[in-house]
TrEMBL record:
CDD domains: G3P_Cytidylyltransferase. Residues 5-124 form the Cytidyltransferase-like domain. It comes from the Bacteria. It comes from Lentibacillus populi. It is an enzyme of class 2 (transferase). Its EC number is 2.7.7.39. GO terms for biological process: teichoic acid biosynthetic process. The keyword Nucleotidyltransferase applies. Keywords: Nucleotidyltransferase, Transferase. This is Glycerol-3-phosphate cytidylyltransferase. The lineage of its organism: Bacteria, Bacillati, Bacillota, Bacilli, Bacillales.
Length: 132
């Protein structure tokens, strides 16, 4: 079984997230998603609208996702890849090059981001529409 892993906050799920999950799954037959915990999000300088439990439940409902694990820190990726016997690590190309150290342990693939959508944009657009 070829296993794939990807990491992220996945807040306010949108088609950019769905695109990367669908394409990540094409690299194998089992996709693990490591979702940032609320505490790690704070370290990343992010405040998710949905809690970790809510984001986990939403991701688990996606057909491309086989397993959801927590992401607690920047350092756990090598251990995750080894523990879960991952063949391919996939991330959006806004992270291009940042995780090349994983090449000693698995294939590393950066995929083009989906243009024109992001959680930040959704929040901003909602704010504008609410302000009338
Ligand atoms: N993404 C995308 N297109 C978008 C928005 C996001 O392809 N329009 C991808 C990102 O490149 C990332 C994944 O969706 O691979 C999740 O994005 P975020 O939830 O913003 O995750 P991020 O904050 O980048 O966290 O250790 C890695 C970090 O946890 C990544």
């Amino acid at each position: 079984m070829k296993k794939v892993i990807t990491y992220g906050t996945f807040d306010l799920l949108h088609t950019g997230h769905i695109n990367i999950l669908r394409r990540a799954k094409e690299y194998g037959d089992y996709l693990i998603v490591a979702i940032s915990s609320d505490e790690f999000n704070a370290i990343k300088g992010k405040k998710a609208y949905y809690s970790f439990e809510q984001r986990k439940a939403i991701l688990e409902a996606i057909r491309y996702v086989d397993e959801v694990i927590p992401e607690h820190n920047w350092e756990q990726k090598v251990e995750d890849v080894q523990k879960h016997q991952v063949d391919t690590f996939v991330m959006g190309d806004d992270w291009e090059g940042k995780f090349d150290f994983l090449k000693d342990y698995c294939k590393v693939v950066y995929l083009p981001r989906t243009v024109g959508i992001s959680t930040t944009k959704i929040k901003k657009d909602l704010q504008l529409s609410n302000n009338g």
